[in-house]
């Protein structure tokens, strides 16, 4: 792996360009609206994701404010439900997924020695659909009767019989989000298949590229199933079909099967790129090649394949034959094997390495520890008989926030801090970044760790009120939530300073132990990274 | 190795069409959403107008984008690598379509194999049947729903079988059109492609006939329970895909008449032909699982 990426002759100066895509960059707003450049589009994706992260975060603040003490005080229950629903939708489809797509846009072409993505115009289309899709979703909150209030999982009959009219807008905005995701995934997959520089063989590809390749496959496989699910919800609600209504021969549980057939691979869509990021960062700061590169690739593929046969572990309590419950329990537990391989490999990479603890490494280490906590609570949830106790409690909320916030989101922050100097050509404000890290780390645990306790004690999810015995924990959870929200403003500050090109210029390698094609081109990376393919030995 | 020449990357220039496409999808989503809401409420509003504008903008975008694309391709700008990207992209797009249909086939199988038997008391659901849906018995096609709506099953003989034959023949004719293109036999190409389009139109015509028959004579509607639901959504989405496929073939036909495509450079033709074969395979699945079995 370490020797894989020497460039032999990327002679930029001698390369003759076609004049219509030379190095002059169009200016102003139209640069961003019309761009076909993978770096511009990556930046757009990342800023969009950040804005959505803050928007969804603001909704989380509403939820935590309401739950600060027992009783109903700030918002009415219907609005509370809209907040939990739209918070989930925005964080999943608006923050985490676009952030990963943005990283893929920025990094995949640089890592495989390509000038750009394979289909640059479609790339622009995939991005610009998103702001429109989310403005529809957010606008529906202001409609008469309010926005979607059935949870991000939109279970029937909540989303059919008992939902408001805005469901139609929800359905169509999910449709166009799905179109965006599928096009983005096709682009990534084709880029990786077809644009690798000579010598960049499959087993030399950086793990971020590998994990994104597999993620893209998952996206193409399951986003259409989500489209099918929302279509059935639409026809059930508005056109008199009865897919999810027993009176017509359908079944509400069928909704859950279709949804989670999408939903479980979706979970891995949000974590596999994170695994890739951590596998890039840990070797750099441990100054050792990644331990078990091949096993990392196989583990990623195994997780992806297993993700198609575990969906019903989300539905242990909703009615299945015992044999099915057993199957889904064991299949789910099987996933802990490849995941364990990954955690083991990260730790083994650090073993006897010359470790230093720069900001990206701090986030990566926090990821490894805290994601593992989320993984272990996932194992507890996988055990069918005890899931009957945990189901729909705050224990589940604690579990998936550990894997998604301290997992996916922390990995995105690690990635941004790791590659930001490459993007801007300057080092970010390290002092502020340290504040961001420590404030986030402490507050996020204050926020999510006590949720395990209230969950085990029986506090249900998605309810704006709770029994008095949960009051103390919830107060601390809310304080942690507000602190975590405020900590992200430090992140915003660091990013604004970085985009204004403040800070010391950096070398092309940036980090002492960094290896890979993206560290061999100048910082900031040129508009088109590679005009002619570099040869990888 | 070191001095080997590699084909230069081709990076397409900026284009206005993607953002036009994004606006089109925005208008379609807003328009369709409001249209659905207004229709069910029985109100009049702007939903249908916004939807119509969105569709027009989308068509303009498709026309413009493809025109630019064809001009660039005809002026020899594209590299082999880009051609491979297009082919791979089209294959993955078709895979995503397969998964879209899989969701509806999944609903069909779940209803037949699990939901209906359970409603009639199988597995451990005896009380479900006795208390909630007394007297309900699972059957397929479900001509009497648990809620008491009755309908008539669509027979597999007659129109569906004719349509199956039509689509299968059209796949063969399209294949021979492709062979003609590859061997430089332009007459065979034009004739076979023309026949394929006519067969596609014939299929769509008969499909409309079948829908009229279902609604008028059989009382089989979108609201007739899970049988009607899966029947109309599966055949309906398939019909939309045949319509799109036929339009694609028509565009290809016009391009063939203009002398486009060579024996080794005809991505658009290949993509359109893949799409058509895909649509045919979906129909065969439909014929087996929706009509015959």
Quick overview of this protein structure:
Chain A: It holds the Pfam family COX1. The complex is a heterodimer of chains A (537) and B (293). By secondary structure, chain A is an all-alpha fold.
List the domain count of chain A as a whole number: 1
Percent helix of chain A: 55-70%
**CATH topology category name of the largest domain in chain B:** Four Helix Bundle (Hemerythrin (Met), subunit A)
Strand content of chain B: under 5%
Roughly how many Å is the radius of gyration of chain B? 24 Å
Shape by Cα distribution of chain A: globular
**Strand/helix succession of chain A:** HHHHHHHHHHHHHHH
How many angstroms does the end-to-end distance of chain B come to?
A: 59 Å
Query: What is the total domain count of chain B?
Result: 2
Q: Helical residue percent of chain B?
A: over 70%
Q: Please give the CATH class of chain A.
A: Mainly Alpha
- Report the oligomer: heterodimer
Descriptive account of the structure:
The complex is a heterodimer of chains A (537) and B (293). With 537 residues, chain A is mainly alpha-helical. Chain A has a single domain (36-517), classed as Cytochrome C Oxidase, Chain A, CATH 1.20.210.10. Chain A is 64% helix and 0% strand. Chain A has 15 helices and no strands. In chain A, α2 (38-66) runs antiparallel to α3, α3 (77-112) runs antiparallel to α4 and α11 (359-382) runs antiparallel to α13 (394-424). The model of chain A is unreliable at 1-22 (pLDDT under 50). Chain B contains eight helices and no strands. Residues 1-5 of chain B have low confidence and may be disordered. The longest helix of chain B has 40 residues, at 80-119. Chain B has two domains: 14-76, Helix Hairpins (Orthogonal Bundle), CATH 1.10.287; 84-292, Cytochrome c oxidase, subunit III, four-helix bundle (Four Helix Bundle (Hemerythrin (Met), subunit A)). Chain B is an all-alpha fold and 293 residues long. Chain B has helices at 17-41, 47-74, 80-119, 126-132, 159-182, 186-218, 225-257, 267-292. At the A-B interface, α4, α5, α6 and α7 of A face α1, α3 and α7 of B.
């Amino acid at each position: 792996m370490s020797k894989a990426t020497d460039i032999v002759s990327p002679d930029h100066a001698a390369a003759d360009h076609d004049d219509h895509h030379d190095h002059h960059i169009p200016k102003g707003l139209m640069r961003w609206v019309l761009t076909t450049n993978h770096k511009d589009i990556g930046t757009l994706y990342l800023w969009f994701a950040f804005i959505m992260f803050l928007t969804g975060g603001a909704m989380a603040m509403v939820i935590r404010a309401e739950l600060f003490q027992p009783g109903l005080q700030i918002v009415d229950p219907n609005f509370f439900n809209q907040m939990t629903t739209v918070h989930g939708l925005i964080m999943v489809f608006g923050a985490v997924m676009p952030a990963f797509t943005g990283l893929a846009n920025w990094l995949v072409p640089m890592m495989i020695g390509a000038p750009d993505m394979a289909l640059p115009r479609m790339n622009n289309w995939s991005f610009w659909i998103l702001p429109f899709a989310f403005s529809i979703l957010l606008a529906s909150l202001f409609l008469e009767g309010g926005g979607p209030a059935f949870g991000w999982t939109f279970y029937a009959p909540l989303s059919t019989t008992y939902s408001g009219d805005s469901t139609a807008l929800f359905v169509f905005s999910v449709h166009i989000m799905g179109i965006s995701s599928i096009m983005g995934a096709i682009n990534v997959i084709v880029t990786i298949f077809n644009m690798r520089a000579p010598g960049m063989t499959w087993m030399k590809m950086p793990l971020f590229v590998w994990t994104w390749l597999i993620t893209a496959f998952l996206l193409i496989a399951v986003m259409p199933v989500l489209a099918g699910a929302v279509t059935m919800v639409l026809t059930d609600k508005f056109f008199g079909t009865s897919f999810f209504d027993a009176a017509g021969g359908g079944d509400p549980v069928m909704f859950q099967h279709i949804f989670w057939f999408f939903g479980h691979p979706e979970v891995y869509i949000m974590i596999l790129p994170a695994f890739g990021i951590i596998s890039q960062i840990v070797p750099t700061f441990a100054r050792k090649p990644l331990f078990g590169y091949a096993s990392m690739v196989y583990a990623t593929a195994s997780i992806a394949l297993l993700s198609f046969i575990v969906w019903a572990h989300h539905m242990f309590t909703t009615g299945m034959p015992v044999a099915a419950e057993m199957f889904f329990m064991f299949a789910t537990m099987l996933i802990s094997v490849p995941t364990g391989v990954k955690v083991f490999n990260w730790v083994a990479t650090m073993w006897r390495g010359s470790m230093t603890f720069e900001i990206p490494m701090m986030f990566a280490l926090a990821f490894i520890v805290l994601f593992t906590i989320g993984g272990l609570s996932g194992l507890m949830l996988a055990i069918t008989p005890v899931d009957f106790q945990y189901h729909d409690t705050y224990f589940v909320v604690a579990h998936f926030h550990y894997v998604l916030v301290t997992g996916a989101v922390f990995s995105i922050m690690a990635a941004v801090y790791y590659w930001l100097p490459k993007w801007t050509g300057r080092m970010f404000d390290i002092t502020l970044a340290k504040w961001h890290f420590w404030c986030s780390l402490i507050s996020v645990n204050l926020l999510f760790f006590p949720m395990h306790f209230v969950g085990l004690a029986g506090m249900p999810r998605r309810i704006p009120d709770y029994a008095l015995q949960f009051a103390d924990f919830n107060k601390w959870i809310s304080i942690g939530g507000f602190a975590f929200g405020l900590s992200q403003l430090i992140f915003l500050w660091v990013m604004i300073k970085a985009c204004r090109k403040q800070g010391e210029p950096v070398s092309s390698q940036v980090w002492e132990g960094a290896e890979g094609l993206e560290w061999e081109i100048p910082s900031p990376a040129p508009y088109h990274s590679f005009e002619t393919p570099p040869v990888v030995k | 190795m070191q001095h080997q020449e590699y084909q230069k990357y081709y990076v397409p220039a900026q284009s206005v069409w993607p953002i036009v496409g994004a606006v089109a999808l925005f208008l379609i989503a807003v328009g369709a959403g409001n249209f659905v809401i207004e229709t069910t409420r029985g109100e009049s509003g702007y939903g249908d107008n916004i939807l119509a504008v969105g569709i027009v903008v989308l068509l303009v975008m498709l026309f413009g984008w493809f025109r630019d694309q064809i001009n660039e391709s005809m002026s020899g700008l594209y590299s082999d690598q880009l051609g491979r990207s297009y082919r791979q992209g089209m294959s993955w797009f078709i895979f995503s379509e397969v998964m879209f249909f899989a969701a509806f086939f999944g609903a069909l199988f779940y209803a037949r194999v699990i939901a209906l038997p359970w409603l009639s008391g199988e597995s451990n659901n005896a009380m479900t049947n006795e208390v909630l849906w007394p007297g309900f018995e699972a059957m397929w096609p479900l001509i009497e729903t648990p809620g008491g709506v009755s309908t008539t099953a669509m027979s597999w003989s007659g129109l569906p079988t004719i349509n199956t034959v039509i689509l299968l023949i059209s796949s063969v004719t399209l294949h021979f059109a492709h062979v003609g293109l590859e061997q430089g036999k332009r007459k065979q190409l034009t004739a076979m492609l023309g026949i394929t389009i006519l067969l596609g139109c014939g299929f769509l015509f008969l499909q409309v006939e079948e829908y009229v028959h279902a609604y008028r004579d059989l009382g089989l509607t979108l609201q007739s329970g899970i049988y009607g639901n899966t029947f109309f959504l599966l055949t309906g989405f398939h019909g939309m895909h045949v319509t799109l496929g036929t339009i694609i073939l028509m565009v290809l036909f016009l391009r063939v008449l203009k002398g486009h495509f060579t024996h080794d450079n005809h991505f658009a033709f290949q993509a359109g032909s893949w799409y058509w074969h895909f649509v045919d395979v979906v129909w065969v699945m439909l014929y087996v699982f929706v009509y015959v079995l």
